[in-house]
Amino acid sequence: MTALCIGQHALANRLFVAPMAGVTDRPFRQLCKRLGAGYAVSEMVTSRKDLWNSLKTSRRANHEGEPGPIAVQIAGTDAAMMAEAALYNVQRGAQIIDINMGCPAKKVCNKWAGSALMQNEALAESIAAAVVQACQPYGVPVTLKMRTGWSAQQKNAVALARRFEAAGVQMLTIHGRTREQGYKGAAEYATMTAVKQAVAIPVVANGDITSPEKALAVLTATGADAVMVGRAAQGQPWIFREIAHYLATGEYLPPPLVAEVGELLQEHLQDHYSLYGADSGVRSARKHIAWYVRALPGGDALRRLINTLDSTQAQTQAVRSYFDQLGQQMLRLPSPASTTPTLTNDIDDSHHMQALEESARPLLEEVAA
Ligand SMILES: Cc1cc2nc3c(=O)[nH]c(=O)nc-3n(C[C@H](O)[C@H](O)[C@H](O)COP(=O)(O)O)c2cc1C
């Protein structure tokens, strides 16, 4: 199969990490790429200029040592501001700019950013056109992520896709839910199939892809050029190599060795602390640790313990002891069938919506303020 390209950038494969505010920071993106993801978009950067120097924004814009292409997502409601935000990120190393029209969070929607923009096709198109125009002189391609529509009655992804393609957008990602759905119900893929048939630019399928079989099924059903995995990669960044192996051979990789996962998590933690600093890092690392062990024996007890520890040493030591003990009980993680949630009921909507709101809150406040 020929490589998928975004503009001049040939991607390593067709397995993408979904942008998740508060989750897909550089350490996590790098880990996913090491473990088989071909492409990762970084978290949203606000289009508000006065916030560009904030610590959160500058951490998000830190791409040190990250394998390219460096793609930065921007969100906002004003075409001129979005164009400026795109330029700002290009000047700081972004090689691809991704426009977020997929975020359902209320704060963004109230201000007509995120997926709310899908309700106003002309405005959405003018934003895309302005960003494309700003990036063109630098040879930076623009991509866009959206949902299937605003509501079940207004599933306008196909109409929008045509407008975005005409505006010069070079790749579209579709999350198979409407804005109204939030994270409720199951993602649907028929709209992605329709979008794929309506445009010539690459289309990426996203939503509820939690296993190698699901990735293959979605690729086959939609004809999409790539799949994007979000929540299922939390705490299991090796899902990308599992999908890659299955797509290439039709066979499953054995689950990872407990010792390997223990080591990966240690490396992840060290990288995390160096980006956020010890004080903040020890707290923001807790959710990652909880995800790694959520389906493992004794995982709940570790999560509770971790929530009481405030130093990086105590945190890494607790994680090390946990994996040492687990390694005495089993060589490999339990098989994915018992640890990977199934498609229809895997995503507890209220839980994930809350996770999204919580982890994205600081940024959403920046965007919506
Ligand atoms: C905690 C969290 C944060 C997210 N942040 C963003 C974001 O910043 N930009 C965006 O386009 N989508 C964001 N999303 C949506 C995901 O990129 C993805 O579209 C969605 O989770 C569906 O894919 P999945 O079923 O594989 O998780 C976020 C999702 C979650 C759970």
Task: Please provide a written account of the structure.
There is one protein chain. The strands form two sheets. The chain has an eight-stranded parallel barrel, surrounded by eight helices. Strands 1-2 form a two-stranded antiparallel ribbon. The chain has 369 residues and is an alpha/beta fold. It has 15 helices and ten strands. The longest helix has 20 residues, at 349-368. The protein folds into two domains: 5-253 and 349-368, Alpha-Beta Barrel (TIM Barrel); 258-329. The structure holds flavin mononucleotide. Flavin mononucleotide (FMN) binds at residues 18-23, 43-44, 73, 100, 102-103, 145, 175, 206-209, 229-232, 352, 355-356, 359-360. Flavin mononucleotide is lined by residues 18-23, 43-44, 73, 100, 102-103, 145, 175, 206-209, 229-232, 352, 355-356, 359-360.
Short descriptors:
TIM Barrel; disordered C terminus; binds flavin mononucleotide; 369 residues; 10 strands; 47% helix; two-stranded antiparallel sheet; alpha/beta; 2 domains; single chain
What's a concise summary of this model?
This protein is α/β, with parallel strands linked by helices. 47% of the residues lie in helices and 14% in strands. The protein starts with a strand and ends with a helix.
